[in-house]
Amino acid sequence: MDEIRKLELNVIIMGLKFNSEESGKWWELIIGWKWPHEGFTLGYDFVEPNYEPIQDEELYYAFLLYLGPLSIIFNWGNYNWNG
What we know:
It is built from one helix and five strands, in the order αβββββ. By secondary structure, the protein is mostly beta strands. The chain has one domain (2-82). The longest helix has 8 residues, at 2-9. The protein starts with a helix and ends in a 5-residue tail after the last strand. The relative contact order is 0.25.
């Protein structure tokens, strides 16, 4: 019974990821759900990479779309950006 309660309260996330070995490009699409009493947001965020990265830091862009209890997150990057 405790396991079922834990599953019901967790955020539901589905994701899809693609890596291209030839070009070094990658992207991922994540869909997240929160129950309305855990959070309700309308809006978006656009996250750009750090222009002065530290060594071995992974550089990527992210676009986050918040539609109430549903979040759609699209991340993309290129392994060659890391120098």
